[in-house]
Fold these 2 entries.
Entry 1:
Amino acid sequence: MILKHHLVLTLCAVYGILLKGSSGQHPLVQNQTVTEGRTAIMTCRVEYNDQTSLQWSNPTQQTLFFGNKKALRDNRIELVRASWSELTISISEITLADEGMYTCSLFTMPVKTAKAYLTVLGVPEKPEIDGLTKPALEGDEITLTCMTHGSKPAANLRWFRNEKEIKGAKEVNASGKTFTVTSSLQLLVDRDDDGAAYTCKVDHVSLLQTPQQTTEVLEVHYAPRALITQSLTFPQEGQYLKLECVSKGNPSPDPVLWTKDGGELPDLERMIVQGRELTFSALNKTDNGTYRCVASNHLGTSSAEYILYVYDPNAMGQRGPDHALIGGVVAVVVFVTLCLIIFLGRYLARHKGTYLTNEAKGADDAPDADTAIINAEGNTHAEGKKEYFI
Ligand SMILES: *[C@@H]1O[C@H](CO)[C@@H](O)[C@H](O)[C@H]1NC(C)=O
Ligand SMILES: *[C@@H]1O[C@H](CO)[C@@H](O)[C@H](O)[C@H]1NC(C)=O
Ligand SMILES: *[C@@H]1O[C@H](CO)[C@@H](O)[C@H](O)[C@H]1NC(C)=O
Ligand SMILES: *[C@@H]1O[C@H](CO)[C@@H](O)[C@H](O)[C@H]1NC(C)=O
């Protein structure tokens, strides 16, 4: 009984020594990463403490707090919690200069320390796009450059053309503690780029909720390209016809000019020009001819031609153009089929004849029927030649 009691006491004593010793009485800290402008919370803990003071000091070894006593005059630094087992302070409005190794000291003999590295993230500025000429001309080669300052670590820049990602050439330059990142995009300007939105986005660890981006919309000037579309495929006398001069250009072409056979439009009562459209209220055979429209802006001129052939509804019969076309197709199919039948018939008849006439000759020295035919054909050729030379 006494022996057992003694053993328990001994165990307690050993445990006590362990508690007071190296394992329990040691400051514990953690590295911190804080975005500039935010607040850093620095916590130092001791599991078992026999009323020994704790202290936080900054990278330049200045004491910030000794227990609950503030040591450095800096409004940004405040006490959060001070007890024998914890010393927590906060540093608000963090700047890049606050980055470094912070030390928590426990004033045992000898002093025990723990080091926490405070990493400050530099927030990239809103990117700027440079190199845009407004307006750009079709065929121009331009280089768009997107730049953002102040990121730490270096930000990533991404380009999008109308929401679709495209690859740019990135360059990173260090300036002090932060980085200046640029990304350039080489473009051969096309008329399709007119109105295209080019967006430069910044990706960075410090921008989780508010991505930074800038968009520029391209304006491209280009010469018009004219093209005539018609409302009827087979215009007939008396029908209504609309011709449209489709001419896209930027700036928008001046009113288009219509001519007929190189001269002015005749009879403006039945032909009406309205904007880009030329309409015939009722077609007449006399409208036959070559119609041309000309569109131009300060970058160039383009023209298109349309040859009008007014069909005579009487000459085409009552069936109309579509029936005529189907009739034509049917006629061609019938004709081709007939030709095939005649050709096949003649081919088969000729072959059958050759086979029959030569079978006897070839069969003598040939092992089978096929070889017999080949031999026979060879013979006829030779005979033909002989006849020729006689
Ligand atoms: C804390 O940061 C320092 C310096 O960057 C590094 O050497 C150390 O390994 C880090 N400690 C932990 C626990 O991440
Ligand atoms: C980055 O540095 C390179 C080389 O030092 C220099 O040629 C280039 O102009 C710099 N770019 C920017 C955007 O400062
Ligand atoms: C076509 O024009 C001629 C002369 O202008 C006119 O006599 C004729 O009636 C017209 N034909 C039709 C179908 O309008
Ligand atoms: C219109 O053109 C067609 C084909 O070129 C021709 O057969 C017809 O006679 C022309 N009509 C007139 C009025 O010139």
Entry 2:
Amino acid sequence: MKNYNVNEKGYYGEFGGAYIPEMLYPNVEELRQNYLKVMAEPEFQKEFDQLLKDYVGRPSPLYFAKHLSEKYNTKIYLKREDLNHTGAHKINNTIGQILMAKRLGKHRIIAETGAGQHGVATATVCALMGLECIVYMGEIDIKRQAPNVARMKMLGATVIPALSGSRTLKDATNEAIRDWINNPVNTHYIIGSAIGPHPYPDMVTKFQSVISEEIKWQLKEHEGRENPDYIVACIGGGSNAAGTYYHYLHEEDVNIIAVEAAGLGIDSGESAATSVLGKAGIIHGCKTLLMQTNDGQITEPYSISAGLDYPGVGPMHAHLCKTGRAEFMAITDDEAMKSGLELCKLEGIIPAIESAHALAIFEQKIFKPDDVVVVSLSGRGDKDLNTYINYFNL
Ligand SMILES: *Cc1c(COP(=O)(O)O)cnc(C)c1O
């Protein structure tokens, strides 16, 4: 049987690895040597589980969406990551990484953020643990995402604008890496998705794997079996998807569907459908599928949802795509917005626009009436209210 987990060298098939400047090697190596050991400590697991329960509010419900199921004539379950503290799955990872940082003796935390969601999740856990928090954010994004900047400040974080390049996520990441090189001893860098140099994709995946761990026993309660016929998640960098798939990767009766943002359309030049448009390349320290020009410059991605507006996918997903283990589907802005509004009307749940992409597959693909389809509802739509208002003229 094929292996879909990371190997000891940090690769998923041909993807992954640690392509980093030499100056960063000691930091990443310290983490690589320790992360599995630390995660296996009973004390670490106990503290992680306790915080997920009492602070995040886990387990998140697995909700049978009756009206949605009736409409599409199949059995649809929603994994309610939107009900977590701070409104999405991102907190699972930041809780895990802040505990890791503490075990490694780090008392200063840095992070990069695009739309600000990962910055808020990081600032939250730093406040919880009383650690210094510095968030790098592109100057343009700071202007576009004022409420999240305010949240981070209220939580005690320092937000530093990235002033170079396009002044967005890529430039914020460069600033964070520069900071880490200059502060190797006391600082931990919390990466926000299943990307980056090894061991980050694997570490983030393992922290997020609580999602599929819960789905297994919850589905058993609902349906009398642990395995659904399909498991579905949207992919930006791929952390909610990695966590949703993790315990099903080697269950061959479970079909995996990965949903990317097509933006204005795959061929429009305004898209983030990496599996179709990408080629192997290096981004943020790993080899993966990446949208790039013929001479290897990273292409600016586009999606109406900030969380999916990323030019690559994590290396695990590149491997799932290449091997055919996962079926990749691309959903446009319009399709996602329509499905987001549909969930509001049918189930009384306002989803994040990222999550609405995963819901839109039911318009594209026909499932059998007795198929069980579990969809990761990665986040709630409060943060997207302005986008909904402008799009639908509400
Ligand atoms: C950030 C975000 C995503 C995309 O990130 P992944 O790492 O791909 O999961 C998806 N949904 C929501 C609600 C988000 O906030």
